[in-house]
Amino acid sequence: MVLRNDDVCPQLETDANGIDMESESAHGSSSQVRQWIRDSCTTGLLKRRLPFLQWAPTYTFRSIFHDCIAGFTVALTAIPQGIAYGAVAGLPVEYGLYTAFAGPFVYALLGSVRQITVGPTAVMAIMTHEYAVKGGAPYAIVLSFLAGCIELMAGLLNLGWIMEFISGPVISGFCSAAAVTVITAQFKTLLGLKFPGSSFAKVFSGIFTNWKDISLWDTVLGFSFIFFLLLLKSLTDMRKTCTTWSCLRNRHVSKVMWFVSTCRNALAVVLGCVIAYSFELYGYHPFNLTGEIKSGVPSFHLPPFSFERPISNSSLSNSTDPGFELVTFETIVSNLGMGLVMVPMIAILEQVAIAKAFSNGGKTDSTQEMIAVGAGSIFCSFFGCLPLTASFSRSSVMSASGGKTQFANFFNGFVILIALSLLMPTFYYIPKSILGAVIIVAVYSMVELDEILPMWRGRRIELIPFGTTFFFCLLINIEYGILIGALVHLLLLAHEATRTKSSYVRYKKQGVGERIILRADRNLYFPSVERFRQALGKISSERIDDATPKTIIIDMSRVSEIDHTSLKMLKAMLSSWEKGGEKYSFVNVSVNLEKNMLSVLPAGINILHAPTDTDTGDSEDMEEAGALLAVSITGKDTQHV
Question: 494 to each of 481, 484, 498, 502, 504, how far by Cα in Å?
């Protein structure tokens, strides 16, 4: 068989072209990858991801002094709160202190806002409590590790936009319910009662059942210290109010009052220890004391991804000891369940919200804050800590104390380390009722009742997601409460999106006849298709004079997007109008919207573009579109459908 050159060459030419195209495509892809790497590996990005590179080169001895003072002051608040939040989480109190010292070390290097300090909070503690009841400290530590991994990945993948689906009313309802739950749980401590359960319903039923066992000494001490803490908290407000007292206008007196007010929790703990120890010296034991707290710095080790725990039934085949069972990592993850979603989400919400609050109107790097809190939670889990996030109260102290850089967090953690090493035997004498008082005074401001009146005066419908979230979190479960509240608010928004309020106006133009202009008030998506179809059907069925020709004009000036379902409805409606001999046109249509419309609608439909600044004004269509827009906006006979 003989092959001619003209039979072979075309194929060779085609193969050569294909090879060239493939090589060009590969070259283009590699160029894009190199360009992406070049854009990613910049000095600016490195400084954003390692913020200490921004302030370290200009760090001075003066900054060290201010940061040391601020860190020490914050530690005086963090130590009693750490002890208290460890108890709220249902764990030995030292776990709260472990979280209070380890988290600030990481934020000192990775944090982007100098006023922020991280550690245990009331919300994180109450969310951890549910899982600590199931599996003790190992569950809380693994939760911290896994939550940190999720937070870190969310930051690296820029997934912060997911948090935008949690609205303000839902967050307010959640925070209020969490605060009420924490306060309610502390009433059991204030009254000196001991019974299982820490939820709102269980605590109140337990108090009612065990009211005969109320300890008068603990009750009096607890409520006295609530009054004492509130008094010290209001010292700065008293200084501003009592302007007639000349001594209060002295700068040194003002600083002393501020310092006393700021360190009120530490003063309460120290005073409580003195009171309890004094009674102990004379052989009296009227108070429920914190008891022995483990001293020393915790060892650095892997989180307990599997562990053994005692069981009553020793017949399990996987137990290595007759009285113990092996809890595997799969079991831990299964038991944590929704906590692996809700704990990271709430931690990110708190972290970013507090960072924005202290940014003084400046730009907040939400991605870096997510990375910082995620890395902090992972690092803390190696010391046996709870999940952490930013603390508003301690961040306020940091801001007021004059910290110059994020390095103030290092001094904060260092002071707590010293307390762990030297002061734990002293904390044996802390009355539990005083810790309850510290927690109540710290979290009562989280009950956002002041948000109800603005919502009532404004959009009352937003009280529905607020109330739904509050009551579900309070009475059922915190994790499911916030999910249900967010879902309710999204459903309300979806329902509102379907309630289109299209308006139309009639006018007559000499030589043309009657025109009806229908203006859509929003983008057209499938939930609102039926209402918009009814509006189109209404104006097409109305006819004042059969002898006068009628033209239906659909004003799209407020429409920038229209989905496929709406286009199919328009296509069916236009087809029925054409069969009935009615004329129609679309006006004030953007170029992008026209492209979308012509993907489904017939190519010959009459579309008038919206006039722009670059238009010369010579086009008759442009002038008519602008005139029709003016008529549809200012028409006196406008009606709503």
Answer: 20, 15, 7, 17, 24
